[in-house]
Amino acid sequence: MAKKAKKQQQEKGARGAHSNRGGGGRRVGGTPATVALTAAGVDHTIHSYDHDPAHPSYGEEAAEAMGVSPDRVFKTLVADVDGTLTVAVVPVAGSLDLKALASAVGGKRATMADPTLAERTTGYVRGGISPLGQRKKLPTVLDASATTHPTICISAGRRGLEAELSPHDLAHLTNATLARIGRA
User: Fold this and answer.
1) Quick one: which of 2, 8, 115, 171 is 20 to 30 A from 44 by CA?
2) Alpha carbons 152 and 119: distance in angstroms, whole number
3) How far apart are alpha carbons 27 and 20 in whole angstroms?
4) Helix (H) or strand (E) holding 169
5) What is the pTM of this model?
6) Dihedral angle of Cα 30, 79, 70, 178, to the nearest 10 degrees
């Protein structure tokens, strides 16, 4: 992974990348998500890039900046499923199927959560919400397509900072349900 991280560091405006193989490594940004990854001791790589506030899509911007296929970069969305805030982690290349999300957690109806409530509950700002290190642990559903990749990228807790890790490690750390909740 070190060669890959070094290459990605040099591509498409990426500012930096570092790998952490199970704790003891440097924490870039020191977000709750990066602290949680380091504390858990899972292999991961942190990628940072210069965020452009004018870019229309946080996830697509991350994929472009890191030179990673958009089907390997996952966005974190917060939805309201029958009155319970629920985290959905889906590829940036697609969108969230709200009916599938509701079904995955045994609910009847899902709507996107109010952005202010999502920020206040997770402790992160929109475009930087990570499924890891949230202020309040929420039920989480990871799109099953993640398991087709050896690693995926998720927000590391702020705009311009991504964490690359095994989808199985992410599912374990978030106690996520795996389900087909994304649409192409």
Assistant:
1) 115
2) 23
3) 9
4) helix 167-174
5) 0.82
6) 90
For 67-112, what is the HEC assignment?
CCCCCCEEEEEEEEECCEEEEEEEECCCEECHHHHHHHCCCCCEEE
12-53 confidence digits (pLDDT tens): 334 455 445 443 333 444 899 999 999 999 999 999 888 878
Structure tokens at 135: 């202020």
Q: Which residues of the chain have pLDDT under 50?
A: 1-15, 18-19, 21-29
Q: Which of 127, 70, 125 is closest to 95 using CA atoms?
A: 70
Dihedral sign for Cα atoms in the order 126, 9, 153, 166: negative
Q: What are phi and psi of 42, to 5 degrees?
A: -90, 150
Describe the strand order of the beta sheet including 43-49 as a list of residue ranges. 14-21, 43-49, 161-165, 152-158
> For all residues of the chain together, what is the average pLDDT?
85
How far the first Cα of the chain sits from its last, in Å, is 28
Tokens of 157: 């807790």
- Count of C-beta atoms within a 10 Å radius of residue 84: 12
Structure-token match 């560091």, residue found: 9
